[in-house]
Amino acid sequence: MTYDFVELNRNSSMPLYQQLYKNISTAIENGNLPQGTKLPSIRKFAEDLGLSRTTVEGAYQQLCVEGFIISKPQSGYYVNINISESKKQKNVQSIPKSLYRSENSIRYNLGSNSIDSETADIKLWRLHIKDILKKQDIIVSYGEPQGEIELRRAISFYSYTVRGVSCTEDNIVIGAGTQPLLYLLCGLLRNFGLNAAIEKGGFSKAEQVFNDCGFNVSHISCKSDGININELYNNNIKILFVNPSGNLITGQPMKISKRYDLIQWAEQSDGLIIEDDYNGELRFTSRPIPALQGMNSDRVVYIGSFSKLLLPSVRIGYMVLPPYLSKNYQSKSALYNQTASKIEQLALAKYICEGQLDRQLRRLRKIYAQKSELLNETLKREFGSAAKITLHENSLSVTLVLEDNGTDIEAEALKHGLKVSKTETENKNEYALRLGFAGIRTDDIVSAVNIIKQIYNKKR
Predict the structure, then answer these.
(1) Do 330 and 372 fall within a single domain?
(2) CA 51 from centroid of its chain's CA atoms
(3) Neighbour tally for 181: CB within 10 Å
(4) Measured between alpha carbons, how far is 186 from 407 in angstroms, rounded to an integer?
(5) Residue 141 belongs to a domain
(6) For burial by CB atoms within 10 Å, which of 17, 40, 328, 368 has the most?
(7) E runs forming strands in 54-204
(8) pLDDT tens for residues 42-73?
């Protein structure tokens, strides 16, 4: 037994045996020492705590008198009581019931935190993981801070052929997703000042990183063709976090003319663009537009991930740094720890090199095209002209905007085993939902939409 629960103040006016008695009795009352737990012998407890046997014996005697523990001849001292049922019930009821809701209670998932298990290449991924686990000489060492060289080489080829990203393995940094990579990047950007910008309605988790790192964050408005570049000049912005492949409000990719304007802003202002290419390769209604980074690799930091291509639980992302930032990073890379699993990195490298990621990408584009079409058609049929529907290919979701009739659809849907997410809308008379279609089975889409309609119509 460890004694972390025992805190003794040898300078206190309270005798040590009373302090020990109090520590043990409190642990029993809190349920930390369950009924039947065997306590250390008087001799061992005294030795381990640096106390006299008389002190421990005095505490044990008091505990026996009050019924907390009992002494069994030739055996030792045991906890004699358990936390009362009334106290257990009180503790449980003090915790909000919502915290006990399990993801298993979700029947229809129109959220954005998962993918349909039928679309995941789990069987093949498991084989690659098992193969890496057999290589004992490799997995018994720490991973490279910058990321495993095998994966960086694979990503260098993949990102160029799929997204037009210009890079080598030397300026790629691996991490456990966008947020950890952003924290790392923020430490390299001090020469650009502390004024950063993000699209209105943009990636809130990126904004949190900038705030945590002491940056002043401005929200830049968006037009139909993309971000309002004049606001970048007017606010003396030097760092812009943006997703050119799919605006989070309009769902549309940035027009090519606006891309040139954005590159020009970076060059003229000595600024830097952080390109969040979340699911940029997964566009399915048209050919994906090449990444902004390919237009000027000196002024763009590119960030990509594999969460919706492979498995959301496989937390591997990567960023491509301009040469001068890459040199800055490498000069102190030994001071950083790698946040992504070495085993998963090596498995992913093999998965890419054998062409399996390309095949999975083609398969997913077809599946997500079918899902989005079915969801869009069902929403139009059930809500008609009363709804505004916008497809967001990059986030694999649809925005449904309805007249606000006072119904909290998000909360009510959860009661029916349906997960949806309320999202912001500038019109106070509207209620907007973001419906992700990656995590729901195709056969369940119609039923999920019907639940939304039934909930909404109750108040009409």
Answers:
(1) no
(2) 48
(3) 24
(4) 41
(5) yes
(6) 368
(7) 69-72, 76-79, 108-109, 172-175, 195-199
(8) 998 988 888 999 999 999 999 888 889 999 98
Residues 285, 289, 290, CA angle at the centre, nearest 5°?
150
Q: Is the dihedral of CA 417, 419, 420, 422 positive or negative?
A: positive
Token representation of residue 129: 């993981």
CB 173 within 8 A of CB 146: yes
DSSP 8-state symbol, 166: -
Rounded Cα distance, 232 and 258, in Å = 13
Flag whether 2 is in a domain.
Answer: no
Residue found by looking up tokens 């915790």 in the block: 95
Q: Is residue 221 part of a domain?
A: yes
Q: What is the pTM of this model?
A: 0.74
What is the residue range of 448's domain? 108-112+360-457
Same domain, 269 and 398: no
Tokens of 209: 């990183």
Do 336 and 415 lie in a common domain?
no
> What is the H or E stretch that residue 377 is in?
helix 356-383
- From 302, 324, 354, the end of a domain falls on 354
Q: Are residues 393 and 303 in the same domain?
A: no
Dist CA 260 CA 245 (whole Å): 14
156 close to 297: Cβ distance less than 8 angstroms: no
Which helix H or strand E contains 269, and what residues bound it? helix 256-269
Label residue 309 by pLDDT band (50, 70, 90): confident
| Percent of the chain's residues with pLDDT above 90 | 52
Q: Tell me, what DSSP letter sits at residue 435?
A: E
Q: Which of 325, 354, 383 is the last residue of a domain?
A: 354
- Spatial distance between the Cα atoms of 261 and 421, rounded to a whole number of angstroms: 34
Residues found in the chain: 460
3-class secondary structure, 434: strand
In this structure, the answer to whether residues 340 and 364 fall within a common structural domain is: no
Asked if 243 and 146 sit in the same domain, the reply is yes
pLDDT for the residue 92: 45
- Indicate if 408 and 339 belong to the same structural domain: no
Is the CB of residue 49 less than 8 Å from the CB of residue 3? yes
Q: Hey, how many other C-beta atoms are within 10 angstroms of the C-beta on 298? A: 12
Asked if residue 284 lies in contact with residue 365, where contact means CB atoms within 8 angstroms, the answer is yes
Are both 314 and 385 inside the same structural domain? no
Largest Cα–Cα distance in the chain?
A: 88
